């Protein structure tokens, strides 16, 4: 495992006359994605050897598993997936849900190691950017 710290500690909100903004990362090498999970679907239970992931739930509550803990993350909740941790997100609701993902560390979609997968894909991703 790497020495990546939990980036939730660095998130801050700045008030402005017109509202506010949240800053998640500054001057670091990261990869940023928005992941959309359709109702009744979930990503594979997986690990990554070279990155940790910060997630913020955007639209609807989502089912989250990190190692041996499973819970429903509410809209706005920030989640840290440490490098090497078993993790999965799913959507047991009725509307599609999105997550902002910021990946810290060496990013490569090919480092996905699937431990369980609802779609019978290979244990290790070998086709490039095809998703989790």
Q: Could you characterize the architecture of this molecule?
A:
The protein has 132 residues and is an all-beta fold. It has a domain at 29-116: Jelly Rolls (Sandwich). It has strands at residues 12-16, 19-23, 30-37, 45-48, 51-57, 62-66, 69-73, 78-81, 87-90, 97-105, 112-116. Strand 1 and strand 2 form a beta hairpin. The chain is globular and about 50 Å long. The chain starts with 11 loop residues before the first strand and ends in a 16-residue tail after the last strand.
Features:
single chain, 132 residues, mainly beta, Jelly Rolls, 4-stranded antiparallel beta sheet, 3-stranded antiparallel beta sheet, 0% helix, globular, disordered C terminus
SSE diagram, text form:
Layout: E1 12-16, E2 19-23, E3 30-37, E4 45-48, E5 51-57, E6 62-66, E7 69-73, E8 78-81, E9 87-90, E10 97-105, E11 112-116
Antiparallel strand pairs: 1-2, 3-10, 4-11, 5-8, 5-10, 6-7, 6-9
What would you say the CATH architecture of one domain is?
Sandwich
The level 1 CATH classification of one domain is: Mainly Beta
Count helical runs: 0
Strand/helix succession: EEEEEEEEEEE
Oligomer designation:
single chain
Summarize the main sheet: 4 strands, antiparallel
Radius of gyration: 15 Å
SS strand fraction = over 45%
N- to C-terminal separation?
Answer: 21 Å
Question: Any idea what the CATH superfamily of one domain is called?
Answer: Jelly Rolls
Major sheet strand order: 3-10-5-8
> What is the total tally of β strands?
11
Shape descriptor reads: globular
Q: How would you classify the helix and strand content by structural class?
A: mainly beta
Q: What is the helix fraction of residues, given as a range?
A: under 10%
Q: Low-confidence spans: pLDDT under 50, at least 5 residues?
A: 126-130
Q: Roughly what is the average pLDDT, rounded to an integer?
A: 87
The CATH topology annotation of one domain reads as Jelly Rolls
């Amino acid at each position: 495992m790497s020495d990546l710290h939990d980036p939730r500690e660095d998130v801050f909100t700045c008030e402005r006359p017109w509202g506010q903004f949240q800053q998640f990362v500054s001057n670091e090498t990261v990869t940023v994605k928005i992941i959309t999970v359709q109702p009744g679907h979930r990503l594979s239970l997986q690990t990554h050897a070279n990155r940790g992931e910060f997630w913020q739930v955007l639209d609807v509550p989502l089912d989250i598993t990190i190692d041996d803990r499973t819970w429903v993350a509410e809209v706005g909740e920030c989640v840290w997936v440490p490098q090497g941790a078993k993790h999965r997100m799913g959507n047991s609701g009725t509307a599609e849900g999105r997550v902002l993902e910021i990946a810290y560390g060496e990013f490569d979609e090919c480092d996905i190691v699937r431990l369980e997968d609802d779609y019978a894909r290979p244990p290790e991703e070998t086709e490039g950017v095809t998703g989790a």
